Amino acid sequence: MNFVLTGIGAGLVSALLTAVVTKATPLAAVLYLLSPIPVLIVSLGWNHRAGLVAAAVGGAAIAAFLSPLSGFGFVIVTALPAWWLSYLALLGRPTENGAIEWYPVGRLLAWIAATATLTIVAAGIISTGGDYATFHANSRAVSQAFVNLQFPQGAPEGVDAQTREDIIDWIARLTPFLSAQGFTIVLTLYLYAAGKIVFLSKRLPRPWPEIAKMRLPRGAGMLLLVAIAVAVLVPANFLGVFGVGLAGALFTAFALQGLAIIHDRTTGRAFRPMILTGLYVLLFLTQGILAIALSLFGLADTVFGFRRRSGPGSNPPPPTLSS
């Protein structure tokens, strides 16, 4: 019964953190962002069944005090992604010498990207009742607010009406791409933070992985091409939304791998703090433009495995998605 009681407690805490968003204050927004952490902690520190209990209890609590749709949204958007990633993180299989081979971090990152995409699409379907036209109208409203902020109407440097509409429509269609990018980073940070908390409390079953040596599976590169093809060929429905979102999520995952390569290759170097500080400052100042180079860097490492050939102690070849 230990995992049941722990799961109930975590579910109630997560539900409370979710429910406070109705207060519409900055503090409430911050607390809402922390709502998946309790589910992650109990799933990693006790076992994945505790995470399922937390998901069920949290969803039931929100359904009772807010609305059934809100409770369902909590389960789909907050609890189940946290439980699923924790479940994958603790997968392991025995080797011939009796040790345990834990789930590779690179493959886990690929699943983070896929989970972020599925969550974004599911949230869009739930919030609009499955109506793509409503989803696109909502995306256009957000895009229009952004364009009006950047190019105020009537300003000397403003753009003409047709160009404005084209920009609004283009950004609206990119909304799933940008949303999946952001959610991939958020889920990665959630899993890292929860894993670190559980590891420091000595409840994490697996040893702390060498994150800097992670590499996405080779199939992730092919999956990126498929996502782009789906986004181009079927743009005006939720399948196209999934393609656009998956492309953005995988783009971010490869960029994170690019960062990991630099962390890996600067280990033990005298100027490592200066290099990493400069890298993150540039990444912030360029507003993500540097992320394109990092993503291509990570993609090249997955496809060609140049770290594997760069000297002793390099990583083994990346796994395929099916292995």
Automatic annotation (TrEMBL):
Tree of life domain: Bacteria
InterPro entries: DUF2232 (IPR018710)
Keyword Membrane listed: yes
Transmembrane segments: 29-45, 72-92, 104-126, 180-199, 220-238, 244-262, 274-300
Keyword field: Membrane, Transmembrane, Transmembrane helix
Name the record gives this protein: DUF2232 domain-containing protein
Taxonomic source organism: Microvirga brassicacearum
